[in-house]
Amino acid sequence: MLVAVFTAIISASVLAGGTVGLFLYLYLPARHVTKETRDVVHLATGMLSVLAALVLGLLIATAKDSLSSADRSVRDFSAVLVQAEQGLRVYGTEAAPARDLLRRYTRAAISQRWTQDDRDILEVAAPIGATLEQLRLTVLSLRPANDVQHWLQGQVLAQSDKLLSLRWQMLEQQDLPFQPVFVLLLTSWLFFIFAGFGFMAPRNAAVYAAFVVCAVAVGGAMFLIMEMETPFTGVVQVSRQPLTIALAHMER
Q1: Three-state DSSP class for 191?
Q2: CA 7 to CA 183: how far, in whole Å?
Q3: Average pLDDT in the 116-140 region?
Q4: How far apart are CA 154 and CA 139, in angstroms?
Q5: What pLDDT does 119 receive?
Q6: Could you tell me the keywords of this UniProt record (predicted)?
Q7: Cα 96 from chain centroid?
Q8: How many whole angstroms separate alpha carbon 196 and alpha carbon 188?
Q9: Other CB atoms closer than 10 Å to residue 12's CB: what's the count?
Q10: Contact criterion met (CB below 8 Å) for 197 and 19
């Protein structure tokens, strides 16, 4: 909902700026619409356009890094889950309770990461952490009968530590802090940029259509940026396929 509101505000600011510029030209005294004035407005608009492009590029790069980092975390998490399950499977029937806990943990992790309700995230985070701790205690309680089982026990414990680290990493990526200052700054710049465009543009339907297209394009870009900042919710999401594949492997 917040993403849609910000997108609408940004698109509206572009349209409002262009419209203000178009009508401002009509109502200003003649001494304010000379060629020299238009040249200065052109230079100022160009400077703001460069600044806006830099900020927009920074936001896009940051959002893309956030999405890529979350995707890597999910893939690493899935790989460690499979490795831990394989180690428990090789260990033998004594590790069956631990394997069952690992499957339960994986199902719960999938449910938590891709939930659409922040209240659900808070409700299930603690039980999932308890399941992982129970898994560690279960593995610790195993009594290796030979060197191979002893080695496998150590490997699974190390992998459970890695799972814990990756779990907290993904929890931090669940809903990254949004920086409204950048958006507000960019919105104000876009307003003045398109006001300058409107001030210098002819008054016809083609210009209005161009402003509408630009408003939709800029709003769409900001929509994608804000969606990529929340990689486990919304329209643009990290794929859950690595985890579902890992779970399918465990349940064979």
Answers
A1: helix
A2: 10
A3: 70
A4: 9
A5: 47
A6: Membrane, Transmembrane, Transmembrane helix
A7: 37
A8: 13
A9: 14
A10: no
- The owner of tokens 């428990």 is 88
Record the pTM: 0.79
Q: In terms of DSSP H, where are the helices of 34-117?
A: 35-91, 96-113
Q: What pLDDT, on a 0 to 100 scale, did the predictor assign at position 4? A: 83
Residue 249 · residue 82 · CB < 8 Å: yes
**pLDDT, tens digit (0-9, with 9 covering 90-100), for 165-185:** 888 888 777 665 566 777 788
Return the exposure string of 163-179: e unless at least 16 CB atoms fall within 10 Å of the residue's CB, then b: beebbeebbebbebeee
The confidence band for 130, taking pLDDT boundaries of 50, 70 and 90, is confident
Mean pLDDT (whole number) for 206-222: 93
How many helices (H) and strands (E) the chain has is answered by: 8, 0
Neighbour-count burial of 238, counting CB atoms closer than 10 A to its CB (0-12 exposed, 13-18 middle, 19+ buried): buried
Question: How many Å is the maximal CA-CA distance in the chain?
Answer: 96
> What separation, in Å, do the N-terminal and C-terminal C-alpha atoms of the chain show?
40
CB 6 within 8 A of CB 234: no
The span from the CA of 7 to the CA of 194, in Å, is: 17
